Amino acid sequence: MFTVTSEIYSETNYQPTQSAEDDSKVISKFRFRYPEEEEDATLERITADRDGDLDVARPRRGVIELEHSEATELRLVGLQVWRGALLLADYLFAKKREFSGLNVMELGAGVGLTSIAAGIHNPGKIYCTDVDLGCILKLIRGNVQRNSKLFQTQISVLEFDFLAPKAQQSRELLEAIDSSDVVLAADVIYDDTLTDAFISVLDHLLAGGKSSGRAKTIYMALEKRYVFTLEDCDSVAPMYEYFLRQTANKPWKIEHLPLDFPQYFEYDRCPQLVLMRITSR
Known about the structure:
By secondary structure, the protein is of the alpha/beta class. The chain is built from nine helices and 14 strands.
């Protein structure tokens, strides 16, 4: 069986330990620092000790502990942690005031890292969703419970299958969609069929938000994965480029956001990372 592995495990030591409940999984520590309250907070916190030496307060740090897989077949990649989730978590920390009080829904949440990060500074409702392959919803609920002391709100875990018709969606999910202000998605496009279904979901969310008067703002993070093709005689990022082609004529505004915001989580923020903000025109 062909398996894939997220590159982040070999780049950063997340101190994995064997899961006591499932020997096919590990529990890793995703370390972060809390944002400063103000841009000049560091200057305000510089004091002097008895000898007159400068005493600079150290940043407050935290850890999100997640149970996850280290290698999976392609259809179960949600059981791993990918770089886009960490980028989105950084953005949520950097813009914590803008997101505070908003209801947030994550699509294709994987093992829940970004949703948990969203709840650390936001008292609004957090909806963490994914399709229940490989018992992933049970895994997310366990990770939410494991980190419950970190966040100040309730995180609801719901099934959202991009390929399922709306008639099969739960009433709880439909209510969560209606009440959400912000939608997050990290590294959810890796297959054309799934990408088409994901685009249909975004169409529904944006159109529904526009008609209801509760507009949605979508933040989508991904890592462009380049391959060399003989057809193009060049290195291309097929999944990213397919998404752009399929959405070129949508009534959407797609903005590529600069990645110049601070990094709070430990990972390699490589140049192939992309962060998009999508709204309805």
